What does this fold into?
Amino acid sequence: MNFIQISACISVIIILLSYIRKLKNRRFYKLLEQFPSHPSYPLIGNAHMLFGSVDDILPKFEKIMKLNDRVVHWFGLIPCLFLKKHEDIAMTFNLSSDRDLLGTPDDWLGVGILTAKYEEWKLSRKMFSPAFSSSMLLKYAEVFEKHSLELVKNLKAAANSGEEINVWNCCTKFTVETIMGTLFDDSIERGGKMREDFCIAVHDSIPCVITRFQYPWLISHHLNRIYLHITRKINLIHNIQTYPTTVLKRTIKDFQNLRRQSITPDDVDSVGTSKTMIDFLVRYKFKNPSSFTESRIRDELLHIMAAATETSSLSLSFALLMLALHQDVQKKAYDEVSKFETDDGTFTPNDVINNMPYLEQCVKETLRLYNPVALMTRRIHKDIKLNDNAIIPANTLVLGLTQFANWDPDLYKNPEKFDPENYSMEAEEARPKTSRLSFGHGPRSCIGAKYAMLSIKMVIALILRKYHLSTSVKEFTKEHIKMDLSIRSKIGYPIKFTSRKEVH
It folds into this structure.
């Protein structure tokens, strides 16, 4: 038999197996027929509608969802229900607890708080909760302020030159330093090559994850490994995992040495001695040696590092660009933050958290327009009846297009316009709670939401205190953005910084 005949036989076998599978799960597939679907082809389904460059995915999703709010999309033989209305997304996410990206993150991040199954996730959430408590946020605020002041100082060269710069690199460096300073310790490997390789690998891995999601044959773990070898990207996995593994081993060794000293175990193990997130993880490991292995801790670190680095960098970059583009908004935000400046030119954490509502509105509106997590997935384990009595059958993979929900004209008068008044107290109270999707919804919502808001507000407040922001960009619309797992700018984030003294 030649190659064509062998391929034909394999295709026939796969189609027959698919048919048998549908017969065995008739109810499941019958319920899916409630929802519209685009024409599909044998083996690939209608995955071809997402083929091509990552830069073009946003208009492709728009095309898929143009006529319907719910669409069944076939990734090969695997059905996925796309949802774009906030009420559908919120109800589904509220009643489901397992994320599922068809296995795509496992090669890179292992199993942790982002992808762990429900029972494992509860353990992760329980362990991380103290690390994101209000008392710990106040400790982290010192790290945020320190690196914010460093960023303000580093922007002086750009201000003196009078030239526009793309703030992405500055924002990424700030985000990495603050995350590492709160996750590990500010003195560990700061600026080192290992940390730099990690940051580059995280950024470069995102297109690989998206590519696997686009092409159904790459869902196979083995085929994906072959693809990574062929494209010479397999080393990215090594670079992502090396840094947290090295720091973790060092922290465990230091902790063991501390226990051997005269300090009592109660002193060492008390929550009060924890200054960084890794402290909580290592202490938890020693208290629960059988249920929490060293590799699991490494995976948890990877999940926090990878998730927070990209999302916070994007949110900060977009927020600064929006303030530069909308001078009236910037003036109002500056007038607000200038009221709370201390004698040394900084702000107290309490003022940043509680006394800068307009600045918070600016950040929330940025997150609405340019959601750092544009897509969210869940695996449904029991039937869910939607508001119109349509039933999502158990074991359905659901993809919530949160970015489209955030652009819903039924919720916002001018959904593509930057308007912080969308998050005034009155406006928020007028909208349903199910519309708040920037940090997810339901039991798997983002545990670090308050952490991210405090970090971003602190650095923006300190930048506005020192500099006036402007940009050569005349207008920023949907045509200027692209989407992978997040929303990004096609034109960068060009901003000119001018000293406030010169402006006055």
Q: What stands out?
A: Confidence is low (pLDDT under 50) at residues 262-272. The first strand starts at residue 70 and ends at 75.
